[in-house]
């Protein structure tokens, strides 16, 4: 299944258990170090260029500090006529671990929506299967190992379900959940997570999610955002691998890398 962009090429989409189909190719907006959400013209410009290039799926998170820039770019694209409305976009955001507590989920999503200047997100994810003690004066973007605590997963997921019922999140899911965490969540969830987003790259698979097959038609692994891995480990990058780039072929290293990643998720996606 695919949707055709304004540029005339087909963008593959993945039907989920709720909400509209998710474009399988998206633009991630995480940057390091993370910063406070505010005016970030470089992120806004990157998102605008992405929209012009045909991207419709944009991935962010409360901790990334890029929600406001995405909202600014979306509003500008609508004003310019590049987009007919916000509904043409697919926006994913995530609940940070300092807000992964009963009583804090709905307020966290409402803050995300204020940053995005939107009435809803298409997909809202629990960022990690762990919580952190709330920090004074904010959600606590800095991860403090000593403040990590076990998540009240049942209480948190009940509030995620309420986010969906209120129409603030068209689909809800999780991120970085391994098999045992997923099995526990599925034992009590009234609304099955539509997505388990995890890293999937040519050089590493961060979370074992082969058990996604046991979820059957009730769940799905999400398609990842292709991002440059240059210098991530301060050494040779995958884009420099000779096996992926040949002088006899017009293909760049990025193209077979993207094919590998999408191929991996084709076998792992369960609608």
From TrEMBL:
It holds the Pfam family Aldo_ket_red. InterPro entries: AKR (IPR020471), Aldo/ket_reductase_CS (IPR018170), NAD(P)_OxRdtase_dom_sf (IPR036812), NADP_OxRdtase_dom (IPR023210). Signal peptide: none annotated. It comes from the Eukaryota. SUPFAM superfamilies: NAD(P)-linked oxidoreductase. Residues 25-201 form the NADP-dependent oxidoreductase domain. This is NADP-dependent oxidoreductase domain-containing protein. The lineage of its organism: Eukaryota, Viridiplantae, Streptophyta, Embryophyta, Tracheophyta.
